Amino acid sequence: MKRRAFIKLIAWSAVWPLAADAQPANKPVIGFLSARSAKESAHLVDAFRKGLAEYGVIEGQNATIDYRWADSHYERLAGQASDLLAQQPAVLISVGGDMTAKVAAAATHTIPIVAVFIGDPVVGGFVASLSRPGGNITGVSNLNAVIEAKRIGLLRDLKPGMTTVGALLNPDSITAAAQRKDIEEAARTTGLKVEFMEAKNDPELDAAFKSIVEKHIPALLVPADAFFAAAREKLADLAASNRVPAIYSLKESVVSGGLMSYGNDLPDTYRLIGTYAARIVKGAKPADLPVLQPTKFEFVLNRKAAKVLDLSIPAGVLSIIDEVIE
Fold first, then answer.
1. pLDDT tens for each residue of 116-163
2. What is this structure's pTM?
3. β-strands 260-264, 297-302: how paired?
4. Which 3 state secondary structure label does DSSP give 37?
5. Which of 5, 10, 103, 201 shows a CA-CA span of 20 to 30 A to 279?
6. Is 48 helix (H, G, I), strand (E, B) or coil?
7. Which domains, ranges and CATH numbers included, belong to the chain?
8. 104 burial class (0-12, 13-18, 19+ CB within 10 angstroms)?
């Protein structure tokens, strides 16, 4: 070896450890899979980031988040899950309904998953128990299914003489059958007959409301579903133009012009899954993180929507409202 080349080699060997130490460590990747859309979920993503930050995980600083949005097209989820898993993320977030959780659970049995469940994740086969999930998946159960009776009861309080209530279902959702059963049982407990309408796109929503008017259905229940969440403004417009009082699972639907909602605080749910994601990034195992359940439910009313529908809100209903949207 020539003397000059040898000297260069020795010099580089001396600085190599410093150069290596100067390289930034690889940031863990958090895969974020949602059946909803990015635009209408912006506030939820903010809440998720707050949850991460509670445990010191900051997007862009010490972690990277890769997002995939199905925009209510459930058939896109499998491919999007594969894209995310190809990056070997530290954790995969599954939100937007149990269809997303089903796709994520089927796609990997090793990479940790934190999901938001619409119904009971034990009954759905996602976890062994709420306290000890046992596998690679945990998260938050919104328990929407168990409060349908409360929602129907609120509709009946507004329309005390009604004998029938309408309910929307998305036939493409894996939770539709369970929702139908839960709503039927809830209607029975309140002494009402239930009429179901199905819709998975905008034209079918138009057709559903046409049927509601033709059948003289006095009020409507809109259960939790990614498509219904994305279409909340259209649903509010259809309910107002057809003069159909409706209750939703999400406050966001009321902010968008819907009459009222009863359900958990969804941004707080996303904050909670953010805390779980951060804990997993730092070494926690999903099997050791119990499935969380909401402890606070909110009843929200849109006063302007009530005026458009010419509804008089009974004093008993007014006394239990948590928030009024003007």
1. 998 789 988 999 999 999 999 999 997 665 688 889 999 999 998 899
2. 0.83
3. antiparallel
4. coil
5. 103
6. helix
7. 29-142+266-294 (3.40.50.2300), 145-264+298-325 (3.40.50.2300)
8. buried
